[in-house]
Structures are given as structure tokens and as C-alpha cells.
Amino acid sequence: MGGKATALAPVVLRFGMTALFLWFGLSQVTNPVGWTSWLPQWTSTLPLAPQMIVLLNGGFETVFGILLGVGFFTRWVALLLALHLFLIAYEIGYNDIGVRDFCLAIATVAVALYGSDIYTFDHMRAKSPQISNSV
Length: 135
Prior knowledge:
Helix content: 55-70%
Order of helices and strands: HHHHH
Oligomer: single chain
Largest sheet: none
């Protein structure tokens, strides 16, 4: 089973991580009150309401999840999302949810290391001929 199946592995991983970020991001955007209990204690020192912090986090995860899904600046977007997950895992601590988030962050690092796969905007843009302005 090599060849085509192997080439699809990074695509499947990228789409899986996209689904994760979109689910969590959209959940936070549509129900910010339900997510405020997950905020770390230090966020209470910020001059923002807890619901606003959740909305900003959900917006970040949604926008960057979409960018990851279409493969626009794939490496940078995946790297930012991985760092975001590492911070969440750190804040949650050593428990079942923190370990899960740490492992998801590692999976997102794998997407960043691989970069653009064959179904990304980045890949299609790199393959398209550049139009020259010179005559």
C-alpha cells in the first residue's frame, strides 16, 4: 500500500487537525459562556470579560483552522496552532486532557514540518506559472 496512500497521509493529518480546530473554535464562538470555566486563573487580571477572551480564542482557532484547511501559509499557520495547543496543554497540566492536547500539538507540529501537501493552496500557487509584467 505505498504510493498514493503514502502521499495522502499528510492530507489526512492536516484535515483531521483542521476539523479539530474548527470544532473547538466554532463551539467557543457560538457558546462562549460554556467555555469560560476553562480559562486559566491569570486571565482574570486581563481587562477583558471572560466571554470576550473565549470569543477571541474561538475566533483565532476558527480563522487559523480555515487557513490550515485550505493550506494557506500552511507551515506558519500549523506552527502557530501548535504553539497555541502547547500553551493550552501547559495551562491544563498533567492530566488526561492536558496529555491529549500535548499530543495534538505534536500532530500539528508534524503538519508544520511537512508543510504544503498536494491539496493545499500553497502547493497550487507554487505550481502555477508566474505572470510577468515585462513585455
